[in-house]
Every structure is written in C-alpha cells, then in structure tokens.
Amino acid sequence: MPLKIAVASGKGGTGKTTVSVNLQYFISKSLTDEVLLVDCDVEEPNDRIFFPDSKTTSTLEVTHAIPEIDRNKCLFCRKCVDYCEFNAIVVIPPAHFAEINASLCHSCGACSVACREGAIREKPHPLGKITTVNTGIGEGIVEGRLEVGSAMQTLMIKELKKNVSKHHRDADSDEIILFDAPPGTSCPVVETIADVDYVILVAEPTPFGLNDMTLMVELLVEMGKPFGVVINKAGLGNKEIYSFLKEQEIELLGEIPFNKEYAGKYAEGKLLQNIDPHARRCYSDIVTSIERRLLQDEGINYFKW
Amino acid sequence: MKTLITSTTSTPEGPFDKRFGRAAWFCVLDEKTGESTFIKNENAEGQSGIGTKTAEKVVELGVGKVISGDFGPKAKKLLDKFGVQMVIINEDLKVIDIINRIKG
After folding, report:
1. Which residues of chain A make contact with B50, given a CB cutoff of 8 A?
2. Is the residue at A16 inside a domain?
3. Whether residue A256 sits in one domain with residue A157
4. Residue A24 neighbours by CB under 8 Å, 6+ apart
5. Which domain holds residue A71?
6. Beta partners for A184?
7. pLDDT, averaged across chain A
8. Which of A204, A213, A298, A304 is most exposed, with the fewest beta carbons within 10 Å of its own?
9. Where is the 4Fe-4S ferredoxin-type domain (chain A) (predicted)?
10. Which residues pair with A280 in a beta bridge?
C-alpha cells in the first residue's frame, strides 16, 4: 500500500503549501521518486503554481447528483423534508409548492428513499474538476478544484481521494502520497486526513498559531492519528508553542526560520528555484525526522534501501 | 392580513429579535382582529437551511408581511416567490412597540 501523509495546520497561512511542495521535492530527491502530491485545498488549490513548467495530463469533470421534485407526481406529504438532514427541501402543501435547494443539498440520496411516489429524480450537477499535472517532480500533482459557488468541499475531497486511490492502489508499492489539506479543523480537513497513516502539522509560533494548532492536536488525538509538528516562521511570535509541544510530548519534526526573502520567493511562485542551503538543510532534516518516525512506527516495510 | 414579527420571548413586552431564521419566537399579528399569538421557533438551533425552513413556515401560516432585522438570500428568494412583504427594522424595540406602530 502507498504510504499516505497529510500536511495540515488548523490556522490558515502557516505554510502547508510551502511544506507540501518542498517535502515532495526533497522526498523525490532523497527517498523515492514515487511521490505524489494531492492538493486537497479544493477551494483554492495552488500547489501547481510553484511548477511553472508543469503540463496538465488529464482533466476530469466531477458531478454530484442533485434531486429534483416532479410536482405533478408529488403528494406534498413532506416525508422527504423529514428525511433531509440539511433542510434543503421546501414543501408547502397549501401552495402545492415543492423544491430542492441545490446549494444546501449534500447528495445523500435520503429523499429518493423517502419518496414512494417516484416524484424525486436525481440529476447530475457540476461539482468540480480533478486535474492531473506532470511537474517533473516525483509523480506530479493531482488537484481538486471545487466549482465556484459550491459549498460541497468535503464531497469534492472525497471524489479526489477516490480518483487518487483508483490510480494508486498497488499493494506492493512503496509510493508516498502527500495530501495538502485545507486550513481549519472542520469536515473537509477530517475527510482529508481520515485514512492517512501520518499527519504533519505545520504551525507558527504565534498566539493564534498555538491556539489553532491546539485545536488540530485535539482533533488528531480524537481520531487516533500519529503526527508530528513542523514549526514554520520560527523566530516570530513567542516561545509558548515550544513549551506546549514539550508538555504534550509532541515530536518537533523540524523548524523553518522566518525569512522575508523566502516569503518573497513564495509570493513570486519561485519556492523551488535556487533553494538556499539553509532551507535545503531544514527540509532535509524534516524528511529525515519523518523517515525515522515512520520506521519506528511501521517497521521497515515502507522503504527499500 | 397576518404579520409575523420575530421575537426573543413569548410576550409582547419582550425585545424584538433581529434574526429571522434563528429568532426564538414568532409573534403572529392578525391585523383585522388585532390579536397576536406567539409560536415557538422549533428550528432556531438547527444546523443549516434555517432561513428557508422559516420562510416555508411563514408561507404555511398564510402571513403576508414579515418584520425582522434582516433576511438571508435563500429566505428572501422564497418569500419573494410567494409575494410576502419583508420589512427590516434596525432599532432595538419591544415587540409591543412594533405592534403599536402597525395599529397606528
């Protein structure tokens, strides 16, 4: 089975993308070239921006089924309304009105089960696009991009993961799949990390960073996921995050110092061009920490030496 | 015509609720008879789609005018569809103050 690692953060803007893109690069250089990056930040996927010479190899349009009510068949019994967990169905019997609100519908199919009259029929609606990109680094990128205006991030991530596992399910492979998670600790993040083997938390040493990382730590403990922390922008803020990690006995995988020049390179999309020796050392250390940690956890099955 | 006023409590003396879908109570005023009744909003604590749900309730009650602090886009669309007039009040008032204004 491929080894699945998610890069998550809690707080936005801590450096998930920076770490994901660099990790893929350094893993491909020092561990294995079979490393795929999956951009799960489906509301604004941006991993591929850092690969200006990348080429799209395939694009897949994804749809989800939205039910529609045929008012000629509908008895206005409101059974579908009772079944709908998301209040997406409006039925007003005296007005002979029945309608499904596509933006609230989660495509769960419950209303189709509820309706005995055959008044509900499902129709495909665009959900987003899954794009496979050849970047020249490892196995490239697979990116999910949610349709503008849609609120179905979790469903889009589910489809993205399904697509990835369809193409990467070789039981004997020592492939590594990196999942760049969306920010926050809500459903889309839970969906991204639900079946990964390991989570890398990217945190920044500020009061906000610590607060949001704590939320993420609570989530990961509840989900029983092994994880370690990378501190990005080290040198900013205060030292509280370090005391927290020590107190909770959480492994610090590595630190990336705050550096204005580096931030500038990110803004220009030039993260992987002329990587300075210092950043190179930081990421190599992180890869080594992760490798060591995984060897401890899972034995030597994952890597061929 | 019936008018619905969103309310934080079940009495006319209580403050008017500026939230539409998540108002705690609804005061339904019958402008013909001048009588008002209070209905508890059972969806106030729901997860999502509360505005739509409440608009559905308004139409079911046969209300022609709704007075609240604001209306979300989905509720607005549905109320518009059924020709329900929406009135927005931004002042901190008691429900009784609004009733008195209507009665003139």
Report:
1. 87
2. yes
3. yes
4. A35, A36, A37, A137, A138, A178
5. 64-125
6. A10
7. 88
8. A304
9. 65-94, 96-125
10. none
Q: Do A87 and B74 touch (CB under 8 A)?
A: no
Average pLDDT score over residue span A232-243: 88
Kindly give the residue spans of alpha helices, DSSP state H, lying in chain A: 16-30, 79-83, 110-114, 153-167, 187-193, 207-223, 240-247, 260-267, 277-298
At residue A171, does pLDDT exceed 80? no
Chain A stretch 102-141, residues whose beta carbon is closer than 8 A to a beta carbon of chain B:
103-104
> pLDDT of B47-65, one tens digit each?
888 999 999 999 999 999 9
CATH code for the domain in which residue A113 is found? 3.30.70.20
pLDDT band at A298 (very low <50, low <70, confident <90, very high): low
Express each pLDDT in A102-160 by its tens digit. 888 888 899 999 999 999 999 998 999 999 999 999 999 999 999 998 888 999 999 99
Residue A107's φ and ψ, nearest 5 degrees, are 55, 40
Domains of chain B: 2-103 (3.30.420.130)
**B53 vs A: CB within 8 A:** yes
Residue A57 is assigned to a structural domain of this protein: no
Choose among A84, A269, A85, A60: nearest CA to A167.
A60
Do A152 and A174 sit in the same domain of this protein? yes
Q: For chain B, list residues with pLDDT below 70.
A: none
